[in-house]
Structures are given as structure tokens and as C-alpha cells.
Amino acid sequence: MTDAYLTAARRALAHWDVSVREIVRVSRSENVVFRVDGTDGERYVLRLHRPDYHTLAELESEQSWTAALMEAGIDVPVPVRTRDGRGYAPTELQGEHRYAGMLEWVDGAVMAGLIEDDADVAHAGKLFGRLGALMATMHDQACAWQPPRGFTRHRLDTAGFVGERPFWGRFWESPALGTEQAALCRSLRDRIGRRLDGYGARPDNFSLIHADLHPGNVVVSGERVHVIDFDDAGYGWHVYDMAVALKRYQSNAEYTRMRDALIDGYKTVRAIADEDVAMLPVFLLLRALATIGWVAARPDLGLRDYATSLIEFVEAEHEQALSD
Fold this sequence. Notes:
By secondary structure, this protein is of the alpha+beta class.
């Protein structure tokens, strides 16, 4: 760990009443994330949030929703308050102002690892079924919930995906695109925009969503299924959550089984219309485009090869995805 990351983490931890034995950096992507081991044996997650991604009000709104999900019986991160009762504390990292938040640590296996390590196809299907049911339970809660005054999160609607200022960046301007590929992405903006507008954002298909609910953000411990990383959560289409869960498995030989298990699991909790399921290829395409923009806005992560693979997917799949 570089001194800058460690210094920022220690500076942030001064706001919490935790006696620290060890700090271990576990990831650096959207945020810099640490595991904090206390001298009392307790463990915590410390997140240094990416600058200029969310305002303090948006971060506090994230905790408002997770608190409501917890009340509804959904296993989500539990925040640890600062000494003065706040959900977040300011810190600095290499001259950047960031907000730090602390959560209780949850032991278990990441669902993505269980899927990749287990050769039992039926078991993978069961895991996707559990994920589908969990997703539907979260959508049920979001549709019924009335957010408190001042609640604010981004919107992943037509403008949020393909407008002039998409939430994850102007994917059609990615430096990974060739001239013809950029022209294709510009044309897809218009075509997808028309499809989304025609599909419509209604109370039964659009609400608060996790927006990053793939198996890498689910921790499994026995019968316990714990959802992490609500950083991208905002208002969006329910089928987009499904697309996010499935996108990285599209090249898997068992993809169809995984997709069907996810949908069937969803239906055990919440109805979903054939019209919604038919939009899944569109949202899989949209997930790829949004990720191309996300990678372009974060060159420091070194993911250009990943962007290239997504561009190849878009070139190969866009006509089929947008066919009526």
C-alpha cells in the first residue's frame, strides 16, 4: 500500500471510535476500500469515495435507502457512525477531497467466486435463482417506499444513459474507439434512446435500483445473502439490474441456464411481463456501452483491453439486440 493511501485511511479513521490493529487495502476501483481490523477483534470496511462522483447529500441518501432495505428484511451494509454521529467524514487523498464511510464487515464467499469455482451447473443455476429473488425483493421494496425529504440520487433514464451527459460518461467519445466504431456508437445513442422512450418508465418497471447487482457484489454465507456496494444505486429500469447481473456471463456456455434461472427466481417474488423480459438484450447492450464510457473516464485503472472487448461485443450484437 502506498503511503498516500495509508495516510488518507488513517486520517479518516480518526473520526471513528475504533482502536485499529491493522489496515488492509482490498480494492481500488470506483472507491478505495480497506478492511480495518480492530484491537477488539471486530472488522470494518472503510471506503474512501471517489471525488466528484457523489455529493454528501447523495451519499447520505444511499444510507437512507439501505436503512429502509434493512427494515424490509434485506441483508445490506450496516454503517458505523462517526464519533459525532455522522455517516461520513471528510479526508484528503493526494490533494483530492473525498468522503470516507465505514461499514460493518461481513464474512462469507463472494457469489461470483462460487459460480466460477463450482463445476456443478445446477448449483450455479440455484445461485442465479437466489439472486433473482433477492433482486425482485429489492424492487418490491423500492416501488413501495416513500423516500424522505431531501433524498437525492441520480437517474438512469434515457438521458442518464444516452443523453448529452450520461451518468457514466460519453461512451461514443472513448479513445478506445476507431472512427467507424465511434460512428456506430453515435447511431446507437439515437436508436437506443427511441427504444427506451417507447418502452417507458412506469411505476411497475422503474424505481430505485442497485444498478451494479452482479454476483461480484453479493456475499453468501450459508443461507445468508448479503448485498454490497450501493455506490451506483439510483433510479432506473428493473431490467437493467438483470442485465448487470448477467453481462459478464454472456460468453459462458451455460448462459441461457443462468439467464432463465435469474428470471425464474425473480418471478417467485415479483411478476415480470414478457415485454420487460424482451428488453433484456437492449439493456445488455446498454450495459456494455455505459461501461465503455466508465472505462474511458477512468484511464488510471488500466482497463483499455476490457473496453476493447466490450466494443467488439457491441459491434457483434447491436443489430440482434435492437431487432423488434
